Amino acid sequence: MSAVSHDPPQRHPSAFAGWRPRLRAGLARFAMTTLAGLILAAIVHIVTVLAIPALSRHDAAHAYRALGTEGHAEPIPLPGNAGGLPALREADPNVVTAICSYDLSAGPIRIVARTGTLPLGLTLHRQGGGVLYAITDRAAIRGTLEFLVMTEAQRDERIAADDEGETSRELRVVSDAEQGLIVARVLMRLPSDRADAEALATGVACGAAN
Amino acid sequence: MRILDLAYILALGGGLGLGTAHWAVAGRPAIGRVEVGAWTAWPGSGSRDVDPYMRAYLARGVHLPLGSGEGLELIADRDDAGQPLDGRCRYKLSGTTPTTRGWTIGVTDSDGLPFSLPLERTSFTDSEIVRPEDGGLAIIAAATPEAGNWLPLPASGRFQIRLRLYDTPISSQTGETRATNLPRITRVDCR
C-alpha cells in the first residue's frame, strides 16, 4: 500500500469544496460551547446548593421564630393550628417537642431545664442548618441542665469579666449564628405520659443571661 | 452566531445546574448515608458539620433532625431480602435493639408522615410492646389484625419503617454497627 492510494478522491472537487472544514469547525464550536455550558452548570449547581440554606424562608428557624420568646419553651404547633404555622416534618409521634427561639444580638441566653423521669434532650439548631450542641438529661447535675448560648465575641467578653484565677462553672456554648432554635424533646414512654412530657418540655426556661 | 453560542451556554448551564441542584436536594441525599442491613441513617444530619446537600435538604422544609448526642433515626423502605416494603404483605420485626434510653418504631409514608388509618396506632415505644420469653422484639406489621404487637399498615402501597433511638452510643459510630444489633425485617407472606 502506498501513500498515494490514501489521497482523497479528486473526482468531484466542487461538491466537497469547503464543506468538511466547515463541518469540523462547527463541531469543534459545538463541543467548546457545550463544555462551557457544562462548566457553568457545575458552578450553578454548587452555588445553588450552598445558597439554599441561607436563602430559604421555609426552614424551621424561620417558621418557629416567634415561639418561645416569652422566656420559656413553647410546644410546636399541631397540623392545622390557628396560627397558620407549618407542622414539623418527619416528627416522632411519641415525642413532645418544645422550642425556644433565640436571638443573641441582645446578649447571651441562659437555658435551664429541670429533668424528670422521662428522657429529655436539648439541641441547639443554628439558623442556616447544623446542630451546634446536643445534651441529654443524663448530663444533668442535681436534676438541672443549665447552659449559656452566646456568640464568640460575647464569650470573650465573659472570659475577660471572669474573676482572676477562678474557673467559671457555667457551661458556655458558642453559636456562630445570632439566630436559631433551642429544641427540647421529651420521649413519652406511654400515651399517659403526655402531660408529664409536656410539662417537662415547656418547663425549659430560656431568658437573657445576666 | 456569538449571541446564539452565549444563549446556548447560559441555557445549558442554568438549566442543567438548577435542575441537578433541585434533584440532588429534593430527597435525602446519597452523601452521608450509612446503610446497616435494611436500615439507612444519616448520622451527620444532626452534627455541626452537616454536609451541604443534607443542609440544603433540611432547609427546604421544617425539619429538626435529632442531634448527634441526642439520638439517631434509622429508616427502612426495604426488607432484609432487599424487596420494597408493601402494604399488601405481612412483616415480622424481630431481633434486638442497640442500647438506648428509649426507642420508638413506627410506620410512615415516604415523606415521614403517619398514615391515617382507622386504628390510631402508628408506632410503638420500648415500654409499650409485649415481649416474648427471650426478651427480644416481636412486632408484626400487617394491614389486617394480628395477635401480639400489631403495627397496622395501609391496605396497599409503599411505606417506611422508622426506628428512632434516643440517647444511644451508636449515633456517633453508626457505620461500625452490625446489622445483627438492629431489628430484622422479614416478609412473612403477601396477599
Question: How would you sum up this structure in a few lines?
Answer:
By secondary structure, chain A is an alpha+beta fold. Chain A contains five helices and nine strands. Chain B has 191 residues and is an alpha+beta fold.
Protein model, in words:
The complex is a heterodimer of chains A (210) and B (191). Chain A is built from five helices and nine strands; from the N terminus they run H-H-H-E-E-E-E-E-E-H-E-E-H-E. Chain A is elongated. Helix content of chain A is 30%, strand content 25%. Chain A has two domains: 14-55; 60-82 and 92-208, Immunoglobulin-like (Sandwich), CATH 2.60.40. In chain A, strand 4 and strand 5 (131-136) form a beta hairpin. Chain A is an alpha+beta fold and 210 residues long. In chain A, the strands form two sheets. Chain A has a five-stranded antiparallel sheet with strand order 1-2-8-4-5, with helices on one face. Chain B is α+β, with helices and mostly antiparallel strands and 191 residues long. Chain B has two domains: 1-30; 31-190, Domain of unknown function DUF1214, C-terminal domain (Jelly Rolls). Chain B contains two helices and ten strands, in the order H-E-E-H-E-E-E-E-E-E-E-E. In chain B, a hairpin with a 2-residue loop joins strand 1 and strand 2. The chains are: A alpha+beta (210), B alpha+beta (191).
